[in-house]
TrEMBL record:
It comes from Pseudomarimonas arenosa. The keyword Iron-sulfur applies. Residues 6-103 form the Rieske domain. This is Non-heme iron oxygenase ferredoxin subunit. Gene3D superfamilies: Rieske [2Fe-2S] iron-sulphur domain.
């Protein structure tokens, strides 16, 4: 099945080191610009169903930390890097096209 895409913002609206939340269908997604590359993770910690966007994105380490219990995730693949999270966060495809950022509607 072909990926369906949703336009979420202009390319210039998310600069390196920034994180934004966009709704893709019914799913809140953290759009993250890590060193100029864009990544999209579900805005939900896999440990405690809390918004990752409330935590901190570390643009040097490429991690996002859940403010609730301190679980950290690799923004490039959604994998947990420490307890208490043991499951990856859902991630979504991202593309830039015609000056816009598009996020896939189906998780990878």
């Amino acid at each position: 099945m072909a990926q369906e895409w949703q336009d979420v913002c202009a390319s210039q609206d998310i600069l390196p080191g920034e994180m934004q939340v966009h709704w893709v269908g019914d799913t809140p997604v953290c759009l993250i610009n890590y060193e100029g590359d864009l990544y999209a993770l579900e805005d939900r910690c896999s440990h405690e169903d809390f918004e990752l966007s409330q935590g901190e994105f570390d643009p040097l380490a490429g991690t996002v930390e859940c403010v609730l219990h301190g679980a950290k995730f690799d923004v490039t693949n959604g994998h947990p890097l420490c307890a208490p999270a043991y499951r990856s966060v859902l991630r979504f495809a991202v593309k830039r096209e015609n000056g816009r950022v598009w996020v896939g509607k189906t998780p990878l």
